[in-house]
């Protein structure tokens, strides 16, 4: 008996992730709770051998709510059994390892099969790891778990007992390896030859059948690269193969009928799936790899084989001395000034560091030393070949390489046409010309040869993707891009609470730097808590506390200097005045002398119903505070006091909940001079919504305690939203937040509250949301609220958990591809630089939109972890949604936060983008990035197919139509009834067009997130005949691009033509008939609005009172909102159709499939074709009538 003694290399303690909602002040920056692992449905941990449902060894769980608690320790008494065979100690030969795959022995040549149950394929011994493309489960069917132990104790390949009875076949144990340098799996794919070599070695893939069965097979490429084979198989060896020359195309993702009709569609990862289309009938071989990386290797290698056949390797090897090598050689020669053909390791490290600043010096130096050791060469110098080898290994990002070869026509560089297709099809750029592509090449290509020839190398392509042009944040929103002429109450305003404090609320120091920092960050509302000071000079601090004091004058000097550094739009000074009359006069003098004409002194006009706009108030400072009645002519008068500090002090000293509810209202004397400085922001006390609607003036502003505002949002969400359409509302943190923690601003933004005051000195999740939200609109401090919160008649509830009436939901598709240069968290308790990162994607918005997803953990790789995981979120109110990326470390006790980035949904750029991560305090982490892909579709276009071939298309019988609610007021109900038919017609027009597009995308072998230009580009190779002449051409007929056959078509192309014709037909029908539908909807809307002013009187005449009257009013608002929404959807559908037609036309020109043979010139496309296409009528006048109607 062989006895082995092993020491656990490291005890990893994994903590339970905190909740997304209501995090504590010390943990606000962390992500939401991790989804439980599939291995244990109770707590998400791996099952212990003692069946205690805990991790083997020691399992610490942290309970996180509002404060950190002591860990509860569970000590496992079970035995951790490690089979010696796992370490290659059984004396048997180990099988060939290729990545994570194991080659089955030759004796396992029979047909094997496993049934997928709850997403799991095979028994526990054969389960996939955390990165598996097929979700695992702890429940396995009896049939799927039939295994037998072989003589050496290993388990055989799982199979159904009803199909395979022979128990002699066995599955070899996988060999474990230990390395003290680079790990075997660290070898990167940096050239096509790496892919071909890996395919020749072979990989274990899963073969998918439409009958919901999955077959484990070992696929490999013949040494002569003529055939693709798989084993084991019941078929003869000559039949279990595909000739490379018969392969028509390679599709990525689950985009064949076999995948769509497979019962495990939802459990199969999109990133690990691919299909080989072969034969004259375009049959498909549908496969799933164990990882996205393996799938990319096979897709890239097969596409090379299709392009170059058996000459692939020769072409690759002969091309290695081309542009990239020449460029690196020139750089090396420049560094080798002496001509010795060697440079020192130090110089080589600096040269690599210069080319890739994110790499660590120690990692580069270690790589050079590894090469020297492998060559058994001593010395401290580096040759050119060694330098190039290290650069290839450390600076080639496989995920970018796989993307690069997808668009490279010759697989070694992108020419101007290749880049043009990438920019338009993937990055969402419109009407890209070859000149624009050439500008990109000249800007980012590092080699002189590439610049001269107009070629973009892999390194140039990487430079472009790392540039600001490929930042995830839309550059259009880096400048003021919203309508700034709306009333002030229609905007969210970036606001600060107790701006002078830089630590806690009770003992913290006060400093003018708080104002400087807030104003530089775009804050447009700062707070000044003013009290009598020594030497007749007012001071600022929090009264009734131990906070330090700063002079009022110094703060006003700072405000004067920095008020309009970050934004030209109005700044609000929230004065909380507690001074005597004498020092109030000093305050007035400082304000008038220092700020001068910047103070807004013009009173509101009596005829105005709303506040002025930010545009009208540019460069002005608005003083918010108490104001004497207009009838007061004396030098001073009495007003009520605002004292948040007293409220906090009283709450800290009073223990009784009943006593806390009543804070006595005090009064004080206010000078008229100081009162006259308050014009548009008069502070008043809030009573209730009915009284406010009846008597409050638009220039009067109410401040809400966080708790009271939350109660209003919960109990009166509709009234709160309507209140904020006209009046400004300021929400300040609860006095109990003495640690300066922050409330969730989204809780009040969703109610329309404009001024949500934040503690700028406290970083974390809530401050991330605030900073991220106000990045948009040029970081000017003002963000236009959603239209549904501004329109006079609109139906919206802040707490809705369903779709919003009149707003079209969007589907957000995010793929987390990789990360770069993740640092060790600052609060780490573990030694060394090892990081086990994982990523959270969080959606913040209305309750219906709040969601989160997390990636798997990538163990021991913070330099370049590959995640390759895709997520999908439905966004019901896009105008108020935010996306937050959070990177955490899964490997130690302490603070796991690495970095985050928060961005408004409306600012996302589609395509392949880099996300610059920020630290806890908001600083950009140098060279620390996430690489992602973003796509946004509407709900129909982005839906998932149902099982058994039922796509997302809905028939008219099952279609959901917008319906009008009954008010029980006959005259009004009769008007709304006239909208029923045009509403159905509008829905049919949109749904028919969208369904036709989905069907066409499916036939093209693309997912729903693809655009029509990508569809045409994917079709191009299939449209070519045996003699390389096109079987179909696009021809503009009546300004619409139709497909015209150029001869006899095979069956699959006939289906394509039928689906495409339906796209054109439904698109044309929508353009020609949508105007009549929305004109009729508009007429009904106008007729209904005539009843709006007298709706209550009509309801009373019909006998409606109390709740029935309220219900009738709500139903009226609902109906108007539905009609406005359908009008907007029709307008959007028209724009979508016009964009689709242009995409088709330009793609046809790019592929030279336009009748007449025209192609895109360097200036775009030929002017005649462009003019013909743009002649499609838009009927802009009719559309314009529908905007902001009856607001």
TrEMBL record:
GO cellular component assignments: cytoplasm
Reactions catalysed: a 1,2-diacyl-sn-glycero-3-phospho-(1D-myo-inositol-4,5-bisphosphate) + H2O = 1D-myo-inositol 1,4,5-trisphosphate + a 1,2-diacyl-sn-glycerol + H(+)
Stretches the record annotates as Disordered: 14-48, 1155-1191
Swiss-Prot/TrEMBL GO biological process terms: gamma-aminobutyric acid signaling pathway; lipid catabolic process; phosphatidylinositol metabolic process; phosphatidylinositol-mediated signaling; regulation of synaptic transmission, GABAergic; release of sequestered calcium ion into cytosol
Bias (Low complexity): 1155-1166
Domain PI-PLC Y-box intervals: 674-790
PROSITE patterns attached to this UniProt entry: C2 (PS50004), PH_DOMAIN (PS50003), PIPLC_X_DOMAIN (PS50007), PIPLC_Y_DOMAIN (PS50008)
Subcellular location: Cytoplasm
Enzyme Commission (EC) number: 3.1.4.11
Domain PH: 197-307
Entry-linked InterPro entries: C2_dom, C2_domain_sf, EF-hand-dom_pair, PH-like_dom_sf, PH_domain, PI-PLC_fam, PLC-like_Pdiesterase_TIM-brl, PLC_EF-hand-like
Stretches with biased composition (Polar residues): 36-46
Extent of Basic and acidic residues compositional bias: 1167-1182
Domain C2 span(s) in chain numbering: 790-919
GO terms assigned for molecular function: phosphatidylinositol-4,5-bisphosphate phospholipase C activity
Swiss-Prot/TrEMBL keywords: Cytoplasm, Hydrolase, Lipid degradation, Lipid metabolism, Phosphoprotein, Transducer
UniProt cross-references to PANTHER family, sorted A to Z: INACTIVE PHOSPHOLIPASE C-LIKE PROTEIN 2, PHOSPHOINOSITIDE-SPECIFIC PHOSPHOLIPASE C FAMILY PROTEIN
Annotated protein name in UniProt: Phosphoinositide phospholipase C
Native source species: Takifugu bimaculatus
